[in-house]
Every structure is written in structure tokens, then in C-alpha cells.
Amino acid sequence: MPISLYNSLTRRTEPFAPLDPERVTMYLCGPTVYNYVHIGNARGPVVFDVLARLLRRHYPQVVYARNITDVDDKINAAAQEQGVPIGTITERFAQAYRDDMAGLGVAPPDIEPHATAHIGPIIKMIEDLLAGGHAYAAEGHVLFDVSSFPAYGELSGRDTDELIAGSRVEVAPYKRSPGDFVLWKPSTPDLPGWDSPWGIGRPGWHIECSAMSAAHLGDTIDIHAGGIDLLFPHHENEIAQSTCAHGGKVFARWWMHNGMLTFDGRKMSKSLGNVLLLHELLKLHPAEALRLRLLSGHYRQPLDWSEGAIAQAVSTLDGWYRVLRDLADIELPAGDLPVPAGVEAALCDDLNTPQALAELSVLADAARQSGTAAAKAALLGGGALLGLLQQDAEAWFKRDSGQAIDAAHIDALLEERRAARAARDFRRADAIRDELAAMNIAIEDGAQGTRWSVQKS
Ligand SMILES: [Zn+2]
User: Fold this and answer.
1) Residue 214 CA to ligand 1 centre (angstroms)
2) What strand order describes the sheet that includes 23-28?
3) Phi, psi of 426 (to 5 degrees)
4) Rg of the chain over CA atoms, in angstroms?
5) 169 pLDDT band (50/70/90 cuts)?
6) What is the pLDDT of residue 398?
7) What is the average pLDDT across 433-445?
8) 354 near 297, Cβ under 8 Å?
9) Residue 29 Cα, ligand 1 centroid: separation in angstroms?
10) Which residue, 73, 74, 66, is CA-closest to 30?
């Protein structure tokens, strides 16, 4: 089944084919690690995790890089405020990021390059840009000369004159033109810095992605991904740097951008006080429900986040896991789980995850009605491609929603209730039901005995 992907550069959905038919290269701009990320930051990693899963099915090798920005003025500010070296901040929050992503079922990237580990390649790339007449040094800074790259603005559709005319901020005196951007900047002794031909300094933000992408994936990569908020200036600048440093070679063949998250229809921002940290949400809600919600809209559209939407996602998963729990005794066919054609076709169509989720609902209905091993395997296989239905159905219903659940104690109470009912001691049986209800445990008597689940509060 061929894959088609929308390319932000050509503004068209195009049949995807990697440069090397055996190997796909993909780069996603990762986090700047100075605090916990919010749920909006998780959309790209989740969406492109699904893309990586799809590509891995279609190609023998996928090399997926997601960087860690570990030198940045926000990191410096946090380190100074806490009186610690930047490494203390960046290591802590890089690990928090990995933990949060693992919580959401995002597979680790193949390569996780850190900016501070690539100062050499960054300096080399800046030297190449200077040698090629695409950059200039001024007052300890090195700047990219936007006028040296006529294609500047192609990705964002902005033209350079418009950028200059629209620039309201005061232009730094060392810039020849307001659109020029920093490749290297000087560091005072209280800031992290590295020795360079232009004095002790540190890289600007944009150059790290160009240098790390080239170091690990080559001069031309197949897919470059990121949030739509990075399209300008970050990605525009990456194209300018990489293309000019590599003698005009195409940098990224596909540019993919995910839309932003809104919260109850409003922008998520610190000033509005509606920033939802992923770290906190993972304590409050089942991770798969967060993941399902992030995949419930098409990745290029904005997605609204609300309590109601999370509850809806939990309820959808309840339905699917109920089917799987009913089929717990049905043994799966041997071998790999099949990937149902409907789910795969939806994802091959520019990663249409809402359609793929609709297909999953159809598969769940089919499994409930037929009760066959093949239908159960199809539901699980479709879920696996989306990174959903990854846990035991019984565990889903008995999940710990912030309270300590003693499953053995609950099972013992249920056994006592069964015995009380058998002995027609209904008063005792009802007292046990009440005791369980007080513990937030719902019970359900059925043909297969009594089941329990933790009630959602
Ligand atoms: Zn980047």
C-alpha cells in the first residue's frame, strides 16, 4: 500500500518514496530541556511516532532522530536562578521528557543527538557558511546573510522585503539586515561557552538542527518534522543553512508540520494560566486515553483539549477493552499480529488517524459480534500500529487512578461475597458491595462470575 504525505514545502500531498529505497531518514525537532513539557508539546512526538511505526512496516530501515536542545538562553536563566550548572537542569529535564514520552507509548528515537555534543560540527558548518559567502562575523557574533540565499522564504511563503518591512523590533547593531539570524553568539564568563574562531561563545538555536541532522542522517534527508509554530523562522532558517553549507543540495525532501493544541478553544499559554503539564496529566488519566485524544484529530489541523474530550477517549477505550476482556480466553493465532487493511489505508493517506480510529471501532464491533481469534487479532494489530490497546484488558479496568488498589484484598472480599450469597446471607453480601463501593470499586455480576473495575472519579 503506497504512502502519501503532505509536504509543507510544495503544499501538496505527494506519493512518498525515500531517496534510498532501503532506508528512510527522518528528523523531528525535539524539546529545549529546562522544565516539564505541556500536553501540546506531545502532539508532534505522538503523531510522528505513528508515522515511524508505519514507515518501519514499509521499509527495511528507518533512522529516526529527535534532538535534545541542551544549550539555550532559557536553560541558562533556569540554571542561574537555581545556582546550578546547565547540565543539572538539562539532564534532569531530558530524562523527564523521555519518561513522559515513554508514558505515552512513544518509542524512543533511533538517535537522540544533544546540541552540546555537536559543537565541533556546528562550528565546522558555520565556517563553511562563512567561506561560501553566506555568513559574516560581527562583534563576536556570526550571522547568516539572508540576502545570499534567494530561495529564503519558500517554505513559509514570506518574502524577505516583507520580513524587513514588518520587523518592529529594534534591529541589533551587528546585523546587516533585520532578517539575518544568529549562528553563533559570544558568551560572558557567567554563561556556558565554547572556544571558537570567533571567541568564547555558544551556538544560536537554528544551526544545531542543521548540523546534527547532517552529522547523523546525511546532507539530504527524507522527512523533517515539527510543530507548525517552528515553520518560521526555525525551519526556514534550517533550510537556508543546510542548503548553503552543502553546495545547494536539497536539505529535506518532505516537510511535515503538526497543528497546535488549544485548550477549551483557547491558546495554551502561561499568561492564560491554562498550561497542562504532561507530567501531571499522566498522573490523572490513563496514558492511552491521552494518546488516543492526541490522535483523534488530523495532525495538520488544530486540536482542542478539554476534560470532556479526555473522558470521551477513556470511554472509547473502555468499550474496546471490554471486547478484549470478553475475549480473554480466546487464544491468538500464531505469528505476528495482522495489520488490518482499513487501518493501514487510513494511515497511508497522509496519516489520517481519525479514520484509523474509526476503523478500530469497526474492528471492535466485529470482534464483539464474531468472538473469533482472527477478529481479536485484527483489533489488537490495528491498535498496535497506533500504539493503542497495549495493555492487558483486565489491567485496564483495574488501573490505579491515584488511589492504592489492593487487588488481592478486593478478590478476597469478592470471594467472601460469593460465599455469603451462596449461603443466602444477603445482608453480608450487600455490606461487602457497599464496602467495595466506598473503595471506589464497581462490581458487575455476569455469566463468567463477578468482575470489578476501579470507578472513574
Ligand atoms: Zn529544529
Assistant:
1) 12
2) 61-66, 23-28, 221-227, 252-258
3) -70, -25
4) 26
5) low
6) 87
7) 87
8) yes
9) 4
10) 66
Distance 6 CA to ligand 1 centre (A): 19
Please give the distance, rounded to the nearest whole angstrom, from the Cα atom of residue 302 to the centre of ligand 1: 21
Question: What's the 70 CA to ligand 1 centre distance in angstroms?
Answer: 12
Q: Write out the three cell numbers for 194.
A: 565554547
- The angle formed by the CA atoms of residues 197, 134 and 64, to the nearest 5 degrees, is 85
Say if CB 303 and CB 261 are below 8 A apart.
Answer: yes
d(CA 26, CA 216) in angstroms, rounded, equals 10
CA atoms within 13 A on the CB side of 164: 12
Q: How many residues does the chain have?
A: 457
Higher local confidence (pLDDT), 212 or 171: 212
Query: What letter would DSSP give residue 382?
Result: H
Convert the pLDDT of each residue in 195-209 to its tens digit.
999 999 999 999 999
Q: Are 37 and 100 in contact (CB under 8 A)?
A: yes
Residue 454 confidence class, pLDDT cut points 50, 70, 90? confident
CA of 28 to the centre of ligand 1 (A): 7
User: How wide is the angle at C-alpha 264 spanned by C-alphas 261 and 265, nearest 5°?
Assistant: 70
**pLDDT-derived band at 167, boundaries 50, 70, 90:** low
Mean pLDDT of 422-437: 91
Ligand 1 center–CA 224 separation, angstroms: 9
Residue 453 alpha carbon to ligand 1 centre in Å? 44
Rounded to whole angstroms, how far apart are CA atoms 109 and 64? 5
On whether the pTM is more than 0.85, the answer is: yes
Q: What cell does 92 get?
A: 534532569
Q: Cα separation of 430 and 3, whole Å?
A: 57
Residue 267 sits at the vertex; the CA angle it makes with 265 and 268, to the nearest 5 degrees, is: 115
For ligand 1, the distance from its centroid to the CA atom of residue 352, given in whole angstroms, is 24
